[in-house]
Amino acid sequence: MPGLPQLLGLALAIGLLHAVAKRDYVLFHSVIEILRVIVLGAVFVLAWHTRRWSASNFLRIIGISSLTVAALELLHALTYKGLGIFPGQGANLPTQLWIAFRYLESASFLFAALTLRIRMRPGILAGAYASVGTLLGGVIFAGYFPDCFVEGQGLTPFKVVSEYVIVGIFVAAAAVLYRERARFDDVVVRLLMLSLLCGALSELAFTRYVSVFGAANEIGHYLLGISTWFIYRAVLVTGLIKPFNLLFRELRQHQRNLESEVAERTARLRASQALNTAFIENSPSITLLKDLEGRYTLVNRAFEHFFGRSREEVLGETVFDLLPEDAARALDHNDRQVRASGAPLVMVEPIRGVAAERSFETVRFPVFDDEGKVTGTGAIFTDITELRRAEARYGLMIRTSMDALVVIAPDGRFLEVNDATCELSGYPRERLLAMRIFDVEAEFDATRLRAFMQDIAAAGSARFDSRWRRADGSIRDVEVSVNYVTHALEPCHFCFVRDITERKASIARIEHLAHYDQLTGLPNKLQFEQHVLSALQRAALQGRACALVYLDLDNFKVINDTLGHVVGDALLREIGARVRKLAADERRCCRFGGDEFLILIEDVDDDAVPAALARQVLVEFARPVAVEVHELVSTVSVGISVFPRDGRDFDTLFKNADTATYVAKAAGRNAYRFFDASMQADALERMRLLGKLHKAIERMELRLHYQPQLDLRSGTVIGAEALIRWQQPELGLVSPVRFIPLAEDSGLIVPIGAWVLREACRQAAAWQQAGLPPVVVAVNLSVVQFRHGDLVGTVADALAESGLDPALLELELTESILIGDVDAVSQAVTRLKSLGLRLSIDDFGTGYSNLAYLKRFAFDKLKIDQSFVRDMDTNADSHALVLAIVQMAHSLGLGTIAEGVERGDLVEQLRRLNCDEAQGYHFGRPMPPEEFADYLARARSRAAA
User: Fold this and answer.
1) Which residues are CB-neighbours of 4 under 8 A, at least 6 positions away?
2) What are the two backbone dihedrals, phi and then psi, of residue 226, each rounded to the nearest 5 degrees?
3) Cβ-defined contacts of 95-99 (< 8 Å, 24+)
4) SS3 content of the chain, % helix, strand, coil (to 5)
5) Helix, strand or coil, per DSSP, at residue 155
6) 244 falls in which pLDDT band (50, 70, 90)?
7) Chain mean position to CA 83
8) Given strand 357-368, what is the order of strands in its sheet?
9) How large a percentage of the chain has pLDDT more than 90?
10) Hey, is 745 helix, strand or coil?
């Protein structure tokens, strides 16, 4: 049986192979397969040349079959994915060859074990195995062999089942061999059974991999190599040392007659040294022999290459003739120690050669004569310089990694940590190595964590978020990537841990922004609408009524314009607090926009309940609000619509409550009104305006103005937002706030939007043709325009008609567009992007703001709403939100543009926050095309100067 040195050598070989696999998996695979081919070829040579005098049918079958198995295995190695010898071949062909030779190998062992008592003719066996190998190879290369591996899916059922069948054959062969163990030497039969069992285990590993470069594939090849090593020990080593005396028990009867012959052969082998010379000459390690005086008596080619001296120059010399005295004295001292002790000496030492100093792992050993006296010393020097450098680089990489690296034993002990781990946890390295993962883990208790670690060990890897408790007691959010690693010493969990506390805080701020009004802290319109929808569904099922109460502050614009936004915002915060108190439940109220609030009343029996709340609202709002030095009173107009009487959905109830609010304002404000079907005055006015809007395009009454957009880093004008204006002959300049909702309600927004796209593209192309620098023109899209009509065709036609480069067109989508059929939205966005244009989200932070949409849809830019920008220099919350949006956008690969920049100090703040672009009155108001052309020309002149 192998001793400790052999086992240590095997472990070292596996470790080196593992290092090779990490750097070049194809080389690793080729090395293992070629070594197996060499061993199988040697087994064939041994069996073939002993066929006339060996009585063992087992050796004959195994040896002759080894040649065919080696041929198929060589083809498997040469066709392996990544080697490139057979271009165009995937992983299926080498996997088919693998199954073929493993079937043949396992069946040969079983056949040999079953026919121990039968003597077969070597020629017939050789012909039969050659035919079988040729047939298998032809079937595989002709494409008739079943598929064994499919790219992207992994192993086929045929391949997995075949592996289990092969496992069964190996186990059966081992069982038969155990039954016939009396016909073998005890050591040999144990080695053969170990080889068969390792072969079976390797097949089990090969049922698990999905990639031909995966961990299961690598482990299977280690087991395959160990199986081959046992064959090598059982057949070749035993056969060379004791000429089959230890391999086959039936030859023991010839032992006494062969002892003298073996002794003579051994003496001749010692005398000739031919085999030893071949090994020594071709070894990459420096090998040498010295006599008792330290003179060289043998050196190999590696020695000559390293020291730059031929053996003729070296033989008879000492180390003092090769190296400086200090270096030579150290080496000579070690040789003397070996001669004195008569025992080997293993150490690592530096030696300088012709080129440079290298590190060597040296093995010095005494040389004895036939009487056991020391006649000199020998040494083998293995260059480990690159290995040491690789270890140093690996250690440096681990120590300096920005992420925490943790190696954890199955029982939770910290086996290794780097500097980043110490910084993250707050513990010194020595303290951590005395602790367990349970001491810092704050998300899972010890029982759950142990179970989780077992699940990871079974799965092989995992990625998850958790929390760590620092030495000071604070909690940090972490992202953990873990792989379960098994090796010869001890399995472990290899983890990279990243601190994501700040990222989670930013996400939480964004998520809060998505559902709550930043100024008042009340739910925003999206969250409120979702709550109303649920309440209406419950009310419909229970046959109950609900009331939607619409609150619109009276004359708030006067306060805002007179006293400024700071006072106006403070008033709105106090109003928001009163609305929250009146609603009793925060979910039943919201700030719908500007100075408008909504309250939902559930389980309404009659109009008395909402009327009582409305009166309470009037009283509550009439109380003065102290803001700085001002004492303000802002009355409110209230409109009420009742479900199901005034509508069965949120939009209808909202519209009718809004109509009632207008009636309350018309009645003198500071009043409430229930919706009544007779409230049509405003509707008639809208219809009149809508009639004029129908002819606006035909009469060429629509205009586009352009507001410049600048790059904050360079100050260059890089774009312009196209803003629509309606110059109506009778009504004058009609505000977009007045006619755009009408256009959306009526569907006119589709042809109006198409006109805006054509005109914006035409104008941008005209500027370029006039010699002005190209700028990106941004066009707003409405929800109706996005969801109705052929938007993609309209955009494509506008680009084609104008000849504008698609990269110079940017479409601005509001967040409300993204709500609804996610697949339909995704398809539309994808088709738009395929045109080559840019997409941005307008007024980011005031609507839906769902991060999932940012990751799913291919947007280029986020437009930060002016409500956050205009007071970010005085409001810490606004500043923090703008920073969070910029950081989040950049982490997702998106650009940012801030709108509503009206002061120079805001520009500097935005630059410090790394915001990319900006627009606002500070740079320029929306202007007609001719004025914008002059603006652009002046900007170019300033840049040139």
Assistant:
1) none
2) -65, -40
3) 95/148, 95/149, 95/155, 95/159, 95/212, 96/140, 96/145, 96/146, 96/147, 96/148, 97/72, 97/73, 97/137, 97/140, 98/148, 98/206, 99/148, 99/159, 99/162, 99/163, 99/166
4) 55, 20, 25
5) strand
6) very low
7) 27
8) 296-299, 286-291, 374-383, 357-368, 345-352
9) 23
10) helix
Whether residue 448 is predicted with pLDDT greater than 80 in this model: the reply is: yes
Report yes or no: 778 and 707 within 8 Å, Cβ to Cβ. Answer: no
Q: Where does the pLDDT of residue 723 fall: very low under 50, low under 70, confident under 90, or very high at 90 and above? A: very high
CA distances in angstroms from 733 to 730, 738, 889, listed in the order given: 9, 11, 37
User: Radius of gyration over alpha carbons of the chain, in Å?
Assistant: 42
Q: Report the pLDDT value the prediction gives residue 276, as an integer from 0 to 100.
A: 65
Residue in the block written with tokens 């293993």? 346
Q: Is the pLDDT of residue 367 over 60?
A: yes
Can you spell out the DSSP letters for 801-839? HHT--GGGEEEEEEGGGGSS-HHHHHHHHHHHHHTT-EE
Tell me the CB-side half-sphere exposure of residue 683, using CA atoms within 13 A: 10
Token pair in block for residue 857: 């849809």
First to last CA, the chain: 88
Q: C-alpha 4: how far from its chain's center?
A: 43
Give residue-wise pLDDT tens across range 681-703. Answer: 666 777 788 888 888 888 889 99
* DSSP per-residue codes, 17-82: HHHHHHH-HHHHHHHHHHHHHHHHHHHHHHHHHTTTT---HHHHHHHHHHHHHHHHHHHHHHT-TT
Show the tokens assigned to 572: 């709105």
With beta carbons less than 8 A apart as the criterion, state whether 470 and 426 touch.
yes
Q: 3-state class of 552 per DSSP?
A: strand
Q: What number is the average pLDDT over the span 843-864?
A: 72
Structure-block tokens of residue 185: 């030497």
- The angle formed by the CA atoms of residues 428, 456 and 500, to the nearest 5 degrees, is 50
State how far the Cα of 74 lies from the Cα of 393, in Å rounded to an integer: 35
The predicted structure's pLDDT at residue 556? 78
Is residue 551 predicted with pLDDT exceeding 60?
A: yes
Instruction: Give dist(CA 654, CA 665) in Å, integer.
Output: 16
- Quote the strand ranges of 442-491, DSSP E: 461-469, 475-485
Structure tokens at 584: 């009793």
What local confidence, expressed as pLDDT, does residue 776 receive?
Answer: 96
Band of the pLDDT at 853, cuts 50, 70, 90? low
Least confident range of 92-101, 191-200, 235-244, 808-817 = 235-244
**Sign of the CA dihedral with 864 first, then 867, 870, and 873 last:** negative
The helix-helix angle for 876-891 and 501-515 (nearest 10°) equals 110
Structure tokens at 467: 């929390």
Length of the chain: 945
Residue 784 CA to its chain's centroid (Å): 38
CB-count exposure of residue 562 (10 Å: 0-12, 13-18, 19+): exposed
Q: What is the pLDDT of residue 822?
A: 59
Neighbouring C-beta atoms of residue 151, cutoff 10 Å:
11
Reply yes or no on whether the pLDDT at 843 is more than 80: no
Task: In whole angstroms, give the CA distance from residue 777 to residue 720.
Answer: 5
Handedness of CA 446, 452, 455, 457 (dihedral sign): negative
**pLDDT bracket for residue 245 (50, 70, 90):** very low
Q: What is the pTM assigned to this prediction?
A: 0.37
Strands 461-469 and 475-485 turn out to be antiparallel
Distance between CA atoms of residues 580 and 586, nearest Å:
6
pLDDT computed for residue 761 by the predictor: 96
Q: Does 867 score more than 60 pLDDT?
A: yes
Quick one: tokens of 83? 């080697």
| CA distances, 129 to each of 64, 123, 459, 818 (Å) | 8, 10, 41, 68
Alpha carbons 911 and 347: distance in angstroms, whole number = 61
- Cα–Cα distance, 419 to 497 (Å, whole number): 12
